[in-house]
Amino acid sequence: MTDVDTAHLATRVLWAAFGLSLLFGFIAHRSRFCTMGAIADVVSMGHWERARMWALAVAVATLGFNGMVALGWVEARNAIYAMPRLLWLSALAGGGLFGFGMVLASGCGSRNLVRLGGGNLKSLVVLIVMAVTAFATLKGLTAVLRVATVERLFVDLPTGQDLPSLLAGGGLGSVPQLAVALGAAVAVLLGGWALWRPEGRSPAALLGGLGIGAVITGVWWVSGVLGFVPEDPQTLEPAFLATNSHRMEALSMASPLAYALDWLLFFSDSSKTLTLGIVSVAGVPLGAAASALLQRSFRWEGFGNVQDLALHLVGASLMGVGGVVAMGCTIGQGISGLSTLSLGSLLAVAGIVAGGLLGLRYQTWRIERMD
Fold first, then answer.
1. Where do the TM regions start and end (predicted)?
2. pLDDT (tens digit per residue) in 276-326
């Protein structure tokens, strides 16, 4: 394969990822898919529709990803979520920061991208601040703090941290066999729970759960199969084209925001090229805008007061830092990561949920104090 061939293939990867992110934005807007909203619905109203929607999305993505592992198309160890080093404190602490921040910012990164597509200018501010703080946590001041603190505590595993690899390392079977068995088991359990009650079978829940899960599976295929080159002509090594991590990627909304800002600010630098993450940051709000315009629900929104602005700024900052520390957000770790059956993703999601619950309690306390 020549350099021209890889360039053409990278372009195909970008267009495919952009199309899938458009679809993600459209579905998320139409179904009101939102992890923070799901937690808030359960806590405040005892309403489980969006929680079951999220569970169904994880079930579909898990079945899709591990089905590809069983077929030999992809390997979990090629994703950042399943590397042998388990950064357990980073996952828990970063997830907690992200979860608390998403409550203050009225939603996670993906939700704010969707709301931006619907005309919400508060989300634009949130996304800019989140991008800046995420970039600082990747390469700046908070990156130094990250490396010097939470990343000092970890566990080096003999294999990748995905469950099929761990169990295969213990002699319980081959990775493909375990992937299809575990993937199917998780999909049946989560999918069965999601569909057990009527609210999990509503049109919105089915659209969001099945649609988002299928999109995540599609992006895994685009990055891990379509974009995989056994021998890059430059390095003569295996390569995954058009990804910032140089590994197989699916959708995430934390680090990609930072990389999108970097690409915009240094556009004239020829070394700054478009990646799967960057085009997805553009595709999600455009897909949401298409849905909003078709529904005739597009309208401009802004901050109500200075306090509203302050809360969103703090929340955005916490999400930017926490999303990078945890190596993902509610989409990155919460669906893409979980679909690989990664231990780190389980810890990150636990941290996000705990942080979200704490954030909701804080918001309740703040409102009661004002009264």
1. 12-29, 54-74, 86-104, 124-148, 175-196, 203-223, 274-294, 314-335, 341-360
2. 999 999 999 999 999 999 999 999 999 989 999 999 999 999 999 999 999
- Where b means 16+ CB within 10 Å and e means fewer, 32-41 reads bbbbbbbbbb
Q: Give CA angle at 189 (187, 194), nearest 5°.
A: 90
| Segment 157-185 mean pLDDT | 94
What gap in Å lies between CA 63 and CA 322, rounded to an integer? 28
Q: Which two tokens stand for residue 134?
A: 């995420």
| Number of domains observed in the structure of the chain | 1
Q: Which domain holds residue 217?
A: 3-370
Residues 6 or more apart whose CB falls under 8 angstroms from that of 363 comprise 103, 104
Residues comprising the chain, all counted: 371
pLDDT digits (tens, 9 = 90+) for 63-98: 999 999 999 999 999 999 999 999 999 999 999 999
Residue with tokens 């495919």: 16
- CB contact at 8 A, 247 and 80: yes
Beta-strand pair 239-240/155-156: unpaired
For residues 57 and 216, is the Cβ–Cβ distance under 8 A? yes
Residue 130 token pair: 């989140």
